[in-house]
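Troubleshooting log. The previous run stalled partway through. Resubmitting the same two chains, unchanged.
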Amino acid sequence: METDLQKNLNLDPKNNGMKAEKSLSPFQLAMRRFLKNKLAIIGIVILSVFVLVAIFADQIATHDPIQYNMTNIEGKASSEHWLGTDRSGRDNFSRLVYGSRISLTVGFSAMLFTVLIGVTLGSLAGYYGGKIDSLIMRITDLMLILPFLLFVLTIIAILERINITIFIVIIAMTSWPNLTRIIRATFLSLREKEFILGARSIGASDFRIIFKHFLPNAIGPIIVNATLMMATMIIIESGLSFIGFGIPQPTPTWGNMITEATNLRMLEGNPEAWLPPGLAILLTVLSINFIGDGLRDAFDPKSNY
Amino acid sequence: MLGKEKLLEVRNLKKYFPVKGGVLQRTIGHVKAVDDVSFDLYEGETLGIVGESGSGKSTLGRTLLRLLDPTDGQIIFQGNDISKLSNRKMRPIRKDMQMVFQDPFASLNPRMSVGEIIEEPMLVQRTLTRKERKDKVIDLLEKVGLSPEARTKYPHEFSGGQRQRIGIARALTMNPKFIIGDEPVSALDVSVQSQVLNLMEDLQDDFNLTYLFIAHDLGVVKHISDRVGVMYLGKLAEIGPKHKIYDNPLHPYTQALLSSVPVPDVERKREKIKLQGELPSPSNPPKGCVFHTRCPEAHERCRVEIPELIHQGEEQYVACHLYTSESDI
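Second attempt completed without errors. Output:
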C-alpha cells in the first residue's frame, strides 16, 4: 500500500492523472483510509476473535451449555469447570463460548433486518417526497414517541414465549425509525444534485435512479449507522436478557449469564461467573464502535467528531 | 433563419412553483419562475438566453426538457406537443434532447467511473451491444478531447474543465438533436471557458446540433449565439438576431444590461444606465409590465397593461409599450 501511495504522489503533471494504473473508486479510497485507522484495526482483530469463537463454539466448549447438574450448583472455578457453574450447575465457560454465538447472531441479524426496513422506507420517503414522504414520516414519528423499552417489554409480555427469531423481529421492528430518517435526509440532500437531474434527463427509471445514483452515494451513512447499530443491538439483547425479557433460559446468552449471578453470594464469591460475560459484552461493543467510528472517518474525512 | 425548419416551438409556457404555508401546508401563492414565454428554435442554430439571477432561465431550460412539469402552455418538439406526455412516452424523445449542466462538480455521479457515466444513456435506451457501447464511449471521449484511458477513472480525478467535457460527452451519447446548456461554462476559469465554448461550437457542426444556451455572461452569449433572448422576471423581454440585440437593443432592460458590460477601450465614452432598486420577488411580480418598477422610461400604461412581444423588423421582437406593433407574431 505504501508503495502504491508513493506512485500516486509522483504524478507527472503533464500526464494530468492519465496514468496507466487502475484508479480507485471513492469506495476503495474510503477503505484505504479505513485500514490506516489503528483503533478500527484493533476493533476488527477483537471482533474477529469473537466471531471465530462463535463459529467454532462446538470445538472450544468443554461442556454442553444447557446441561444442568443439580449436584454442582454455583461451583467455583476448577479444572473441570474453568469459570465455575451457575445456579443450575451449567458450565459457565461453555455458556460464555456459546453466548458469543447468540450475541453476534442477534446483533447482526437485527441490524440487517433494521437496515432493510430503514433503507427501504427512507429511500421511498426521500425519493418520492410528497404524500408518501408524509405518510412514512408520520409513522416514523409515531414509532419514535413510543418509549422503546416499555414498548418492547409489552410486546414480549404479550407474546409470553419467545425465541431468537421472534426476538430479532421485535428488535428490528422497533429500531428502524432513526435509520429511516437518516436515509431520507441523505436522499433529500442528493435529490437536488445535478447528476440526478442528468439521470432523469436520459430517461432513467425510478428504480435505476435509486439503485445506481442515490444508494451508492448514501452507502457511507448506511454502513456507518449499520455498524454502530449492531453494537446497540447487542446491548439491547444483553440488557433485555438480564432483566429476564430477552432470550429465555436455558439458552446461553451473556445477559442470561449475568442474571444467574445476581445474588450477593455469587457477586462476592464467584467473580469468575459474572466478570467474563460482562467483559465479553464490553469488548464486543467497544470493538464494533471502534470499527464504526473508523468507517465514519473513512467515508467522511471532512468531519471531525 | 427564415426557411429553416423549426425544431422547437414554445407557446405561452408557464412554470409556477406553489408556495406552501401555514399549519396545513396550503398553497398560499405562486413563484412565477417562467411566465408566458413563447419563442421558436430553428434547426442548427444557437439561441442564447440571458438574464440576471432569478429571471427563470434555468427553470425554462429544465421545463423544456420536462425535468419539471410545465404549469401551462405548449412545448412542441419536432411537431409533437411534449408538454403533457407521461414519463414513459417521454423516454424515446429524451434521446433527442439533452442537457449540459452548470456545476461540473455536482453533475457527475462521484461513484460511477467516467465510462459508466457516458455509457448510462445507452443502457437506459437499450440500443447497443456491450462492444458497441464501449467503442462509442472511447469515440466520444476522443471527440471531446479526453484520452480513452479516462474511461476507467472517476470524476474526482478530473478538473472542472475536464469534467465539463465528460458532461458534454454524456449529453452527446444518444446523438441528440437539441442540447440545452444550462450555464455550462459559468463555473469554469476564463481560459477554460473558451476551450469548452470552442468545443461546443465544433461539436455543433459535427453533430448538427441545435443549442439553447443559458448564461448570464453577455460576452459568452455573444460569442456562441445566432439569436439572443433576454429574460426578466420569468418573461421574455426581447428576442432577436445577435447583431440586432447587441447593436440596436430596443427594450430598456436590454439597453441597461448591455451598458453594464465593460468594454476594454479607455477612449470610448459610454453612458451607463443604472437601474434603480432590486429585482422584484417573482412570487409577487409587479402588475402590468414586470419591469416598470425599475424602468427609466416607464409611463402610466406600463403600470396597468402587460406588453406583448411585438415584431420590430428582421426577426427582432420586443415586449415594451415604447414600441408599436408592425405585425403580430
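Takeaways: The radius of gyration of chain B is 21 Å. Residues 115 and 151 of chain B are 4 Å apart (CA to CA).
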